[in-house]
Each structure stands twice: as C-alpha cells, then as structure tokens.
Amino acid sequence: MIKIEKEIKISELTTLGIGGKVKYFCEAKSASEVCEAIEFSKKKEVDYFILGGGSNVLVSDAGYEGLVIKNRIEDLSEEGNTVRIGAGNNLQELVDLGVKNGFNGIQKLTMIPGTIGGAIRGNAGAYGASIGEFVKRVRIIDERLRIKWIEKIDCEFGYRESIFKKKKWVIVEGEFEFLAGDKKEIIAEEKGIREQRINKYPLTLKCPGSFFKNVEVNKVSKEAINKIPKDKIIEGKIPVGYLLEEVGMKGKTCGAIKIADYHANLLVNTGNGKAEEVIKLMEMGKNKVWSKFGIEIEPEVQMVGFEV
C-alpha cells in the first residue's frame, strides 16, 4: 500500500534545488505500486509525473498540481554479460558494475547523475557513448497499466531521445547486454572521465547537468553550418556550449541563477534561485544563438508544471 503525501516541496528532491510544492507525492518500490499510484491520480483526476534522481528536471515555481511518483524500483542481477537493473537504481551502479566486470563502453557514462529510468528515457550519454547502445530490452507499464517487456528496436533511441518521451509509459527496469574489453584500459578511462566530470560538475553544485542538447548537424541549414568552424563539429554535432560561449552567455546571471564562467551550458543555482530566473537565461541564450547563427537550440531538461 503506497503512502500518499500532500503539499511536498519538490525543490528538495531535485539537483537544481528549485520548484514549488506538489499537490500529491508518493514513492513506489514495485511495478504494482506504480500502478496503484497511477490509479490514485486517475481517481483524483490529476496528472502524474515520474521522478527519478531529480537531475535533468526544472519544476515551476508554482509547483505541480498533480501526483509526483518517485521511482524507487531498485534491484540488480547479472548473468554473464547481461545485467538487469531497476529503473530506480542509480546509473552509477550500472557503470561501477560494468567497470568491475570489464564491460566496454559503459565507463564513458560515469558520474552522469540520475537513475536508470531517467537515463533510458533521455538516452543519456557522454564521450561518444549513449546508454541505448547497451539496452537489450526494457520492462514498462503502458497506458493501460499492463506490465510488459519491449525490445530495443521499439525504444526508438536517438540523440537524447527515445519512445519514452512520446508515450505515457513508465520504465520499470532495463536489461543490458555488454561486450568485454580490456579491463585495465576501461578502469583507466573511467578514472580519467570521472576526474573531468567532477571538475566540471562538483558534487555540491546545484545544477541539472547540461541544460541544452548539443545540435545535430543534419538538423540545421547549410548557411548555419558555414558559420561554424569545422574543428568545432564533433561526431556530427555542434557543442551547444560553444554556441552559447560565442554569444557571450558565460557568467551571465539572473537573480541567484548563474551560467558557469567555465562552461556556457551549465546553469547553477547559487542560492535561492527560481525557475523563472532559469527560464529568462534559457530564453536569452536561445535568442542570442538564433540571432547569430540561425540555429535553434533545445533544452535537455524536462519542464514540469509549466503551461505548454
């Protein structure tokens, strides 16, 4: 039986530390408890939102007039090069297991904040690797509250995209399949990436992670591409941090929200920041990049409680 709480401060559950109160809140530790929570939302005639680790999320200052379901489905099993892990487990647990076992590629995802469910939903990645590469299948709860497995091909993974951004499905767990690599090389690479990420994203930093998605070259005009130095295009993408830096967004502030001096795609809450301040900086960056380059940049973070 799930416990429903009322008027919870969502800011305490997000890495950005921003957001008003949510009308209803609960934690779900199994697929059946998620179904129970969704049934509650239907009974109350309110929407629901699945919360993972609280990264990559921006919640409105007005809060959320629905039910926030904190996914706490946590389990882990391994057999050979196959791993099954709950959506509520931290992504780092999968990375650590992969490094220990010499599974190649997953080390590139070290220190990305958030849960397995959130990582699958956003096809999280870094350093040329994405979690979708390793997915074999995903267990979900569909709109009719049926619990079932779907195969990798049906996940429709793309750059920071998946079917889960288009469907009202809840991710229960993921099954991953890996290839073995040189364990010493994997350990060394993970250590190097970990150090880089800690320098860029200190553990005490109140931020959602990178705010905007990098820009896929095949989605912008030739005129825009001609404005970008070739050496700035990496693996078919234009780093949005470069674009924002070129338009002078580094160090910009709005209230307690500041864009880092060293990374133009990093918005930090330096105190009691507000969502409206984040939105103002977001719009400023979008407009400046469009004016200079003719490129539209999109947030990577999920917006909750805002009018669409």
Task: Describe this protein's structure.
The chain has 308 residues and is an alpha+beta fold. It has three domains: 5-71, Uridine Diphospho-n-acetylenolpyruvylglucosamine Reductase, domain 2; 76-186, Uridine Diphospho-n-acetylenolpyruvylglucosamine Reductase, domain 3, CATH 3.30.465; 210-304, Uridine Diphospho-n-acetylenolpyruvylglucosamine Reductase, domain 1 (Alpha-Beta Complex). 26% of the residues lie in helices and 25% in strands. Strand 15 and strand 16 (257-259) form a beta hairpin. The protein is globular and about 55 Å long.
Write the layout of secondary structure elements.
Blueprint: E1 5-9, E2 21-28, H1 31-44, E3 48-51, E4 57-59, E5 64-71, E6 76-79, E7 82-86, H2 91-101, H3 116-121, E8 125-126, E9 129-130, E10 135-141, E11 147-151, E12 170-177, H4 183-200, E13 215-216, H5 222-225, E14 237-238, H6 240-246, E15 253-254, E16 257-259, E17 267-269, H7 275-293, E18 302-304
Parallel strand pairs: 2-5, 3-5, 4-18
Antiparallel strand pairs: 1-2, 6-7, 7-12, 8-9, 10-11, 10-12, 13-14, 15-16, 16-17
